[in-house]
Amino acid sequence: MKNIEIDEELYQYIVQHTQFIGESASSILRRLLSLENEQQPPIFSVEQLLDKGVASVVDRTSSDQLIGAKVVETQDINETVFNYVNKEELAMQRGAVGRFLLILAALYRGHAAQFSVVTEISGRDRLYFANTEQALAASGSSTKPRQIPDSPFWVMTNSNTTRKKMMLTKVANALGYSDEDAEKIRELL
Amino acid sequence: MKNIEIDEELYQYIVQHTQFIGESASSILRRLLSLENEQQPPIFSVEQLLDKGVASVVDRTSSDQLIGAKVVETQDINETVFNYVNKEELAMQRGAVGRFLLILAALYRGHAAQFSVVTEISGRDRLYFANTEQALAASGSSTKPRQIPDSPFWVMTNSNTTRKKMMLTKVANALGYSDEDAEKIRELL
DNA sequence: GATTCGATCGGAGGGATAGTTA
DNA sequence: TCTAACTATCCCTCCGATCGAA
Fold first, then answer.
1. CA of B134 to C1' of D2 (A)
2. Chain A neighbours among B 82-141 (CB < 8 Å)?
3. CA-CA distance, A89 to B34, in Å (whole number)?
């Protein structure tokens, strides 16, 4: 992700072309510039449902007849989601925050359709995930919200590394990962 | 002015539509979006207008007699050194210091044998380059020495961006680059 | 008590610019 | 004295460990 500085008027122009709540600047601009656009409205994307949706749904169910499928699907998840993680990019990050965001971005890419479940993960009084910067900021003091790259979600970032790892574990579980995989994901941080 | 976050690819797309040195993101975007655009190409580039820019031109005059050799070198250099610079890695750096070190590392890789000439480049009382951290630290206060990656050399890092550019120019010249190439190198920062 | 959670605050990095020197 | 070059202080932002609160 890159930050660019633009003038007020141009900013307003972009904002006015938002097509769904939480749409990122990238997404809006890509549409305006007629470029390929990955980001879709979180709920209605058919493509995402077909793509990654099945795996997570299967994973999360406790239904007997799906167990066989579950094992297989789990493999796929490992192949997909872990491929989304660019190890080099990860290693290059200066601190835990950078890695944290990269990992969450990978999880989002692999589970865009289900990702809003993370919204239920929160602390005693602070929100940990939300669709807007404001929601996080309002839920505590100095929460340091950061946008999960290429996603419409924001995370609370003002915590120690241990808690960030806990958050990753919770996210992984919420998305239906086995404990072993959740552990692997946590350890990426 | 507003800051917006955009993805890497979109950023590259915008950069590629730059029409003059120093053009702002707003200006480029406005052109791409067919909006009114105030910013025009400056008569002189921004860099040239900076007071320090003039100094390095003056400083260069002492290397006149090297011109013949310089021209020949230039061909080789373009093939070697610019290949050493990983543009993506460069772009990913958070600040000027990271890029500075990366560029110097590339120059070192291309000129390891002669690189110790940079040792002659220094400020009024501070050293700019040395073989040890201590040498730099001792030559001034808060010089913030940093090792040039994968090299035995250290650089002084506590300076503004303009000076870092000057340092690059001087290094390039000391290594025998033509002024045009030195300029290209400086502009990598 | 023991444990979890929050957010303050110290530390590090970066670099513009005020201030100093030649 | 005046100016240009150079220095390094100081302010800003980012991080995240630590310690107080719940």
1. 37
2. 89, 92, 94
3. 35
* B6/A25 Cβ within 8 A: yes
- Rounded Cα–Cα distance for residues B164 and B12 (Å): 24
Can you say whether the dihedral through the CA atoms of B73, B74, B80, B84 is positive or negative? positive
Name the pLDDT band for A53 (thresholds 50, 70, 90): very low
- Range 91-130, chain B: CB under 7 Å to any strand D atom: 122-126
CA distances from B81 to B77, B140, B148, B175 (A): 5, 31, 15, 11
Chain B CB contacts of A3 under 8 Å are 3-6
Looking at chain A, the number of H-run helices and the number of E-run strands are 10, 4
Q: Are B92 and A86 in contact (CB under 8 A)?
A: no
Which residues partner with B6 through β-bridges? A2
In the prediction, which pLDDT does A168 show?
Answer: 96
The C-alpha atoms of residue A102 and residue A98 are separated, in whole angstroms, by 6
Q: A26: which residues sit within 8 A by CB, 6+ positions away?
A: A39, A150, B5, B6, B7, B10
pLDDT at B96: 94
Question: pLDDT class for B91, splitting at 50, 70, 90?
Answer: confident
d(CA A86, CA A179): 22
What is the phi/psi pair of residue A129, to 5°?
-130, 145
Nearest to B71 by CA among B159, B187, B181: B181
Give residue A115's identity as a one-letter amino acid code. F
B5 close to A147: Cβ distance less than 8 angstroms: yes
Rounded to two decimals, the pTM is: 0.59
